[in-house]
Amino acid sequence: MALNAEIGAVTDRIITRSKPTRDAYLALIRHERDNGLDRPTLGCANLAHGYAGTDEDRDVMKPGSAMNIGIVTAYNDMLSAHAVYYRYPEQMKVWAREAGVTAQVAGGVPAMCDGVTQGYPGMELSLFSRDTIAMSTGIALSHGLFEGAALLGICDKIVPGLLMGALRFGHLPMLLVPGGPMRTGLANKAKAAVRERYAMGEASREELLEAEIAAYHGKGTCTFFGTANSNQMMMEMMGLHIPGAAFANPGTKLRQELTRAAVHRVAKIGWQGEDYRPIGRCVDERAIVNAAIGLLATGGSTNHLIHLPAIAACAGIVIDWEDFDRLSKVVPLIARVYPNGSADVNQFEDAGGMPYVIRELLSAGLMHGDVLTAGGETMGDFGTKPEMQGDALVWRDPGESKDDSIVRPATAPFSAEGGFRILAGNLGRACIKVSAVERDRWTIEAPARVFSDQAAVQAAFKAGELDRDVVVVVRFQGPRANGMPELHKLTPPLGVLQNKGFRVALVTDGRMSGASGKVPCAIHSSPEALGGGPLGKVRDGDIIRLSAETGELMALVDPAEWAAREFAVAPAPAIGMGREMFALMRTTANEAERGGSAMLAAMGW
């Protein structure tokens, strides 16, 4: 099937826009490959330090003729998705020896859990943990000891951060190595219902805690389609996994063999072989467009409207929200996974999962099939599903959808368009995810109630002050104000108000989360309120119009009055929980549409 014309046009737009920076990036990785730091250029004392920690592999390492794979790991056992990585490095070293190469843990990166910090001060470190992870990845790979790398990470900021750092070493072949989702516990819809009952005072803290533990009960990613699982979807769409690796459960033979295959694959695509596939060439404009298409086709996390531009920038590629908006008009929604449906990721995988989605998109000409993939021979390999036949790992066609309430053919989608829209007006530019929002709520026009933090919103809700049609405006939540925390704690109270029949929406320069759901939310409003963004002019009682139908985000205020208004004074920066240590990142971060990154701003993005 020929590529959809609008997808081709958007890709060409990105290629043209990115040409100067992409050319400079490709020149950089050519230089690093041909003239940069590597083992043959290191002194003997330097090499001895690098080899001193290993006994079994030293004799293989000394000649420098076999690849040495650097393992960058985000392991910790506080974060359920990353606890699975505990034994991975020692296993991967064994599998590397099978392929005639060696592997070393090059370094670790931090991995915080947004689920733990959600609604609390630690969440203000969350977005900047991505820059920290990227820079930590750079430190890990800076020794010149590695001819390839395996990146162990799954969750919200970890995969984007790993990939951002990895792309600055784009001459190396690399794969992302996932760990898989925990098995299904309490259904996400049932969990959400208890949260809403608790918000209304109808459920006790003990009942809520039991429900949460029943939902988040074991090792692996959370089972809803938030940012963590959207990460895994995007890596499949970009060809950076072993095909079909995203959603195999931890602790299974299939998961183990997929990880083994990843090690063997990195060895195969090294620069001394005939199939050299450096990650900087695999992640090109077509791969970035494929990732955006995946978000739209599956209703993925809104966080990637920040993360994908940041990832792209590290490969010299410029993508903006208009690209997402144009793609959304031609990419159909073919998957419904909670919060866009009732299924969790395990049910999604059982129904066909990413192999089904990719096969459907390829067959309909709705994604680039000519990407240079790292994990498979071609993009078509990612449209096949892995399984164990005895002790052998094989791939097969995923067949028809096993449940058409979860995944459908591209010819019979849930919606002819994707799940994102761009909004614009006198309140700036913002994003809205509408794949889970009922169509009669795509337009909300109601009086504003203005807040400067989410705790004040919750207090007003508990006091009954929001029991009416209302647009809740939460400002000073952008990258430069407080690190752009997610405001996911607002989901239950806003959901309760909507359930009561009120016309409700949220407008914020902060993030909402990968779990953005049934309440219309205009998020990532840019420019942010701190420093003169228009949310700083909104006053209680202003009529706000938010429309995903028309793309409007407007304060319906007389233009002369609007122009004359002064900007609200921002709260003083908070300290405690380490937030003061990130002051430099806050003051130098760029806008959300460019990635919300201090590191990228320093690089000139």
Verbal overview:
- With 605 residues, this protein is α/β, with parallel strands linked by helices.
- Helices cover 38% and strands 13% of the residues.
- The chain folds into 3 domains: 5-183 and 218-396, no CATH class; 185-217, no CATH class; 420-571, 3-Layer(bba) Sandwich (Glucose Oxidase, domain 1).
- The strands form 3 sheets. The chain has an 8-stranded mixed sheet with strand order 7-8-12-11-10-9-13-14. A 4-stranded parallel sheet has the order 2-1-3-4, sandwiched between helices.
- Helix 5 (88-98) crosses helix 12 (253-268), helix 7 runs parallel beside helix 8 (158-167) and helix 9 (188-199) runs antiparallel to helix 10 (205-215).
- Pathway: Carbohydrate metabolism; Entner-Doudoroff pathway.
**What share of residues is helical?**
25-40%
Separate helix tally: 24
Cα-based radius of gyration, to the nearest Å? 24 Å
Topology, number of strands: 14
Tally of distinct domains: 3
Q: What structural class should be given to the helix and strand makeup?
A: alpha/beta
Oligomer: single chain
Which ranges are low-confidence, i.e. pLDDT below 50, for 5 or more consecutive residues?
none
Strand order of the largest sheet: 7-8-12-11-10-9-13-14
Q: What is the residue-mean pLDDT, rounded to a whole number?
A: 95
User: β content, as a range?
Assistant: 5-15%
Distance between the termini: 36 Å
Instruction: Please outline the major beta sheet.
Output: 8 strands, mixed
Global shape: globular
Pfam families: ILV_EDD_C (PF24877), ILVD_EDD_N (PF00920)
Family: Belongs to the IlvD/Edd family.
Domain Dihydroxy-acid/6-phosphogluconate dehydratase N-terminal: 68-381
Cofactor: [4Fe-4S] cluster
